[in-house]
Amino acid sequence: MSAAVMKTYHGGCPHDCPDTCSMVFEVENGRLTGVRGNKEHPMTRGGLCVKLKDYEKRHYHPDRLLHPMRRSGPKGSKQFERITWDEALDEIAGKWKRIIAEDGPQAILPASYLGHQGLVHGLNGGDAFFNRMGATVCERTYCGEGSCTAWLLTIGPTAGVDPESYIHSKYIVIWACNSVSTNLHHWHIVVDARKRGAKVVVIDAYKSRTAKQADWHITPKPATDGALAMAVINSIIEQGLVDRDYVDKYTVGFEDLAERARDRTPEWAEKITGVPAEDIRRLARELATEQPAAIRIGVGLERHYGGAQTIRAVTCIPALTGAWRHVGGGITQFPVWEHPYRFDVICRPDWIPENTQVVNILQLGRALTGELPLSTPIRSLMCWNSNPVTQSPEADKVVEGLMREDLFQVSAEHFISDTASYADILLPAAMGAEMEDIILSWGHLYLTYNTKCADAPGECLPNNEIFRRLAERMGYEDDRLKWSDTECLENFIDWDAPACAGIDLDYLRKHGFARLNVGTRDDRCPHREGNFPTPTGKCHFRVDGAKNFVAAPFRQMYEGMQPGEDIDPLPDYLPPKERPETNPELAKRYPLNIITPKSHAFLNSCYANMEGKQKEQGDQFVLISPVDAGARGIRDGDTVRVFNDRGAFECAARVTDDVNPGVVVATLGYWRQFNNGTVNITSSADFVEMGNAPRVFDNLVQVEAAA
Ligand SMILES: Nc1nc2c(c(=O)[nH]1)N[C@H]1C(S)=C(S)[C@@H](COP(=O)(O)OP(=O)(O)OC[C@H]3O[C@@H](n4cnc5c(=O)[nH]c(N)nc54)[C@H](O)[C@@H]3O)O[C@H]1N2
Ligand SMILES: Nc1nc2c(c(=O)[nH]1)N[C@H]1C(S)=C(S)[C@@H](COP(=O)(O)OP(=O)(O)OC[C@H]3O[C@@H](n4cnc5c(=O)[nH]c(N)nc54)[C@H](O)[C@@H]3O)O[C@H]1N2
Ligand code: SF4
Ligand SMILES: [Mo]
């Protein structure tokens, strides 16, 4: 017997995480035996997070879906029987052809997200196929698309401050982002900057892991950051700290913004946010004078009715203060805007037939139950790279829709997730080390290569191969639908773009990653002299004539969106729909604001079925203040019911001062099949005012001891 030889290959973490780590895959005899972070990569720096440190265990987990299956029991019963790939593909193509003949292709709805973040196998991997079919377009605004609308309106598609340049920052504001859990490799840089003298301010509605490590934690009431931001603008102006030269040369609409902000004083904001006026003045003063000052915004800012307007206000601040003049000064959202991906080639939006209906993935429940009027009702759903039963709001409605006997559901998955549980046909999908790809990043400025180096177990196939086979079965002859994974990579990136100078596929295969040519950490200062990628080249405090639109960096041009309402030319505070102050009637029954952010040891709903991660994360819980717990006779560890008119879930109460009275926190990702309900049962599928973004933190509930 010869000893197995261990070889290493370049990998890229394929999960929906801004860090997009460069990995080292250790492989023996076609089997992934270990993973490490790449030491050469300036952000990964040799370390992975708690979720990925034993990624090989996810590849060979005993529950992994290994063969195509057909449902053999009632919907949701998780009874399936093994079938062959040919049987599965024939059944799917047969059903779809019949549906198309009877009701047209719009009766078919694809639903995907960033379960895999590769250019080939990821979010947009099935778009060309479904656009060719003429299926209903799925508007996938799960994450940050209202933030994107705000960002584009104000400063255009810029990557903003390089997360690595924070090493040069002297003042760092992390605004509604739990970096220690969700952006760990940026947090390392923040900590290094602090060692060099930077002050770290965290603005978070509760004492998150990140807030606990801040030099200064500011705690606004949930969904009131718009008032805080407007008062910061007011105070920068009032204290005479505006960089007049920068504003005159590189911005539009200062006088109007100043007029709008005139009565948004710190005292006004104190009443709304609960943050003392003196603290707001101090924040304004320090943000203006401690340069370079950088703001890192998280998606927590977006998740309430006025979220996008809030982000517009925050995005104005660095231009007011002239922070953009400095390396390490300005604001960071999703650096993906400067990555040269060819979404027109990836998605083929030109194949979408005119007037195709659009269904938003946040409103999947409403669409499947008939609550949302559709010109063509949905008869078939294909789901991959996403788990809407846990991740979409109004989750009970999603389940009600999936239980429909007349709905033909196909799920391509790694596991029988909460969504896949309801499928008629299950397709086993290949995992990270089993397929070639380039992983996009929305959190840094590198391309990251992933080698196919392990054999897929059982009969698992990469997403792109699944779509190639489906295209063949459907009789679609287009070349684009036949490309190999390598051909896709050759075509999906604009290799001739200036950002790619000196980089090609061979280079990536050899080195594993490459930094885009968009300046270095130490010299990148993209808006020192304006140069904003807006129609005027300036930062727009004021925007004239704009209509609401959906902006997404991972886009297939969401042109399906009806021309929206007029947009307020200026940023402002828009009160949330569900706060005791704004909705006292509702608050009589449901007095507590619930926030449902990410779990530390899960990646959205991924890993919540793995024992090791369950141990790291603990059972489903809700954080509740001693005041609110006491008033309800709830003790630490009690099982409680969290509910409102949309539904209920049960979990353990953790009584703690980490949350203020009136606020409760329950993290996301736990599976319905292992728990008594999930957090998204209580959240609303209504949108943020702009960008059709999720309003899931704009939510009132009651908590009571479980019967
Ligand atoms: N461990 C882990 N990491 C992840 C993920 C995961 O599931 N687990 N998911 C990945 C994905 S898809 C994303 S989008 C990112 C998201 O990463 P983040 O942007 O960090 O998003 P969240 O964890 O939802 O919440 C951010 C913070 O906003 C706070 N917050 C909520 N509402 C408000 C408010 O009104 N005002 C203020 N000031 N703060 C508020 C919350 O308390 C929370 O601490 O994380 C990625 N990384
Ligand atoms: N209440 C609340 N709701 C939220 C959020 C929140 O903070 N609070 N966050 C929102 C955000 S930011 C996001 S991004 C969404 C995320 O929502 P989803 O994208 O639905 O996230 P996941 O639950 O991780 O689902 C990804 C699924 O894809 C599967 N998958 C992974 N890789 C592959 C692959 O290669 N092939 C196939 N076929 N399948 C694969 C995984 O097994 C998993 O079941 O949730 C949103 N929902
Ligand atoms: S989940 Fe994020 S932090 Fe963890 S390995 Fe992947 S990219 Fe890195
Ligand atoms: Mo996300």
Secondary-structure topology with pairs:
Elements: E1 6-12, E2 22-28, E3 31-37, H1 55-59, E4 69-71, E5 80-82, H2 85-103, E6 108-112, H3 127-133, E7 137-139, H4 145-155, E8 171-175, H5 179-182, H6 184-195, E9 199-203, H7 209-212, E10 216-218, H8 225-238, H9 244-250, E11 251-252, H10 254-261, H11 266-273, H12 277-289, E12 293-297, H13 307-321, E13 330-332, H14 343-347, E14 358-360, H15 364-369, E15 380-384, H16 388-391, H17 395-402, E16 408-413, E17 425-428, E18 437-439, E19 446-450, H18 463-474, H19 485-492, H20 505-511, E20 513-515, E21 539-540, H21 584-589, E22 592-595, H22 611-617, E23 621-624, H23 626-631, E24 639-644, E25 647-655, E26 663-665, E27 700-705
One ligand MGD binds next to helix 5.
Describe the fold and architecture.
The chain is α/β, with parallel strands linked by helices and 707 residues long. Mean pLDDT is 96; it is low at 556-560. It folds into 3 domains: 69-135 and 358-440 and 446-489, 3-Layer(aba) Sandwich (Rossmann fold); 146-333 and 525-541, Dimethylsulfoxide Reductase, domain 2 (3-Layer(aba) Sandwich), CATH 3.40.228.10; 584-705, Barwin-like endoglucanases (Beta Barrel), CATH 2.40.40.20. The chain starts with 5 loop residues before the first strand and ends with a strand. Helix 2 (85-103) crosses helix 18, helix 8 runs antiparallel to helix 11 (266-273) and helix 11 (266-273) crosses helix 12 (277-289). The protein has 23 helices and 27 strands. A 6-stranded mixed beta sheet has the order 5-4-17-16-15-6, covered by helices on one side. Strands 23-25-24-27-22-26 form a 6-stranded mixed beta sheet. Helix 13 links the parallel strand 12 (293-297) and strand 13 (330-332). The longest helix is centred in the N-terminal third of the chain and has 19 residues, at 85-103. Residues 16, 143 line the site of molybdenum atom. One ligand MGD is lined by residues 16, 113-116, 121, 142-143, 299, 384-388, 390-391, 412-415, 417, 429, 463, 596-598, 603-606, 668, 679-680, 683, 696.
